[in-house]
Amino acid sequence: MNIYDYGFTDELITVSPSGTPARIVAVHKGRFGIVSDYGESFAQLKSKEYYFDGENFPTVGDFVLIDYIDNGDSRITATLPRRTFFSRRDPDVGRGEQMIASNFDYVFIMQSLNDNFNPKRMERYLTAVRQSGAEPVVILTKADLTDDYLPYILETSRVADGVETHIVSSKTGYGMEHLGKYLQKGKTLVFLGSSGVGKSSLVNALAGEDIMDVSGIRESDSRGRHTTTHRELVMLKNGTMVIDTPGMRELGMWDVTEGLGQAFSDIEEYAGMCRFRDCRHENEPGCAVRAAIERGELDESRLESYRKLKTEAKYSDDKAGYRRQKEQWAKSVSVYSKKMKKKGRMKKRAGQ
Questions:
Q1: How far is CA 182 from each of CA 108, 187, 287, 334, rounded to the nearest angstrom?
Q2: Ramachandran region of residue 255, left (φ > 0), alpha (ψ -120 to 50) or beta?
Q3: To the nearest whole number, what is the mean pLDDT of the chain?
Q4: What is the model's pLDDT at position 244?
Q5: Coil/strand/helix, residue 234
Q6: Residue 228 in contact with residue 101, Cβ under 8 Å?
Q7: Is 286 helix (H, G, I), strand (E, B) or coil?
Q8: pLDDT at residue 343 above 80?
Q9: Measured between alpha carbons, how far is residue 104 from residues 126, 195, 242 in Å?
Q10: d(Cα 39, Cα 22) in Å, to the nearest integer?
Q11: Burial bucket for residue 110 (CB in 10 Å: 0-12, 13-18, 19+)
Q12: Against a cut of 0.85, is the pTM above it?
């Protein structure tokens, strides 16, 4: 086994190396599955470096340095620099950050052509992927369930303008040939989607063998059971690596400032022309976004999504700061309104 086959490059080590390079391929509670030139094995964090010296905790896809132990768990001593990184707000903690994956090239944003199709969720995923630094690709699965693709294509183009979109069926093979350009040796893909969307089925179809457990979906609501119970990286026969993640119907925003700007560039283009820098695009005077919506140049639902995700990210990251900013916004609008009323009274008196 060669660590370079897993995407490792010498540029990742910026200082004199002290340890053996490895890549995290699975995360369990307190234990990590790794690959290195020694093969597949397990490792644990070295306490001093991670719990006292502030080393970045690793996640699936990370390249790390280890003190290799032949007949036991190796010790992870350092996390190497990341090219791309994906995280969300921890659903259990509420405000903490939960790392999802790192060092990937493409993210397959997956939704199926049934009741699972959800444009709002797609916007949410796209924002997080843009923030990660990787290239998003929309995959609409289960093409065998419908004969009319047009409504799904139109809605996807509205939400993910400029993002490559593919309609596929792992069951019939429809559209699978178009995914070949992403399957390159040394490249890493992340599959992102809610349970029942067909992630495991697609991985198996791309691999040409059953390497992931697959379960059916409930006909009542098109939801599936979580067949992936932990994040893991899988090497396909052609040298492409896939990171599968547990189904995430909800994705709590975490530090997505750049991602919002890219995913909602249509909104931010007009937002830069608003009279108030902290305009919320509601009833403020001089709001260029509201004016664009009234002219039919922007979609009201896009603004709703943008505002919701921006508020959620800011609130989860700094609740106290969010409240202070909200109070400041209300104060600035109040001051402006009073100023305009005073100006109006003065004009009225001058006219008299």
A1: 10, 8, 42, 53
A2: left
A3: 80
A4: 77
A5: strand
A6: no
A7: coil
A8: no
A9: 15, 21, 9
A10: 9
A11: buried
A12: no
